[in-house]
Amino acid sequence: MLQRLTDNAEATNGSLVDPFGRAISYLRVSVTDRCDFRCVYCMSEHMTFLPRKELLTIEELERLCRAFLRKGVRKLRITGGEPLVRRNIMQLFETLGSHIGTGELDELTLTTNGSQLERYAAGLHDAGVRRVNVSVDTLDPDKFKAITRRGDLGIVLTGIRAAQKAGLAIKINAVALKGVNEHEISDMIRFAHGEGMDITFIETMPLGEIEGDRTDQYLPLSEVRRQLGEEFTLEKIPHKTGGPARYVRLSETGGRVGFITPMSHNFCESCNRVRVTCTGTLYMCLGQEDAADLRAPLRASEGDELLSRAIDEAITRKPKGHDFVIDRATQQPSVSRHMSVTGG
């Protein structure tokens, strides 16, 4: 009994709680800023990527994630750029997935553009991954190539089928883009639900300089939801996946639709997430510039005391929320870094 009380006390003392009483249990880790797509809302067409020497090694990424697990993080999501283009990426999934078997980790997930899924789907499942988010903004092959600037929708759909065959649950993520995919949202829902997949729509966010004006892209999901309500019966449900999406079920299809609304209705009050970039920079909020360097303490010592201290100090600075703005008067992005740098 005494040992159990001691163990519980140590677990409580090691947990991460921000200044607003929110327990941090979800870590999103970017393993690369590189991507084989150049999506128009995410990247400039002519991106300058980081020198490889600045990126954390696979071993450093493993060590960093273990430090967060010891502090109470229960869910890890691997992101990029496109995470599956990172060399030796399966080593990371296999090592992190082993923590599911020990009970230290509840879930290991992945966000991907789907271009490499056919190759890696079986290995991901073997490593312990059970859910994957795949970004698909349109079902029109020509429009898909235009949005991604180089992607092949057929390859992505083949990857999705391979992932399902391997036993992975797939959720489609689609950025709602005014004048681009707003008229096919119903078709995308029917496609996803017909294939047994959930689908989540996301408002475009003012992250990084891109060609064009984001005001021309921005489609509030309040309008999307209103239009869907004219075609479908939307049932509110308590379903949560640990992220910011709020879900409804469509009576007509039986499937779930999620909405991520950083612009029209932020989700900050329940934020349990932090993000680490591929260079070891910890962002306590996606929509703020404040960050903490974890690479320096990680490399300064073979032990994790300095790293642990840096994480604890950073969490004391986690803000209440973000301050995203998209309008004609605000031409500069709210945050200068691209989404591919922070991690999608």
Task: Please tell me how large the radius of gyration is.
Answer: 20 Å
Give the mean pLDDT. Answer: 87
Class from helix and strand fractions? alpha/beta
Which percent band covers the strand fraction? 15-25%
Low-confidence stretches: 1-13, 324-335
Along the chain, the helix and strand elements come as HEHEHEHEHHEHEHEEEEEEHHH
Counting DSSP E segments of at least 2 residues, the number of strands comes to 12
In DSSP terms (H or I, runs of 4 or more residues), the helix count works out at 11
Strand order of the largest sheet: 7-8-9-6-5-4-3-2-1-10-11-12
First-to-last CA distance: 44 Å
Q: The biggest beta sheet, please?
A: 12 strands, mixed
- What percent of residues adopt helix (DSSP H or I)? 25-40%
Shape: globular
Keywords for this entry:
12-stranded mixed sheet, 344 residues, 11 helices, alpha/beta, single chain, disordered N terminus
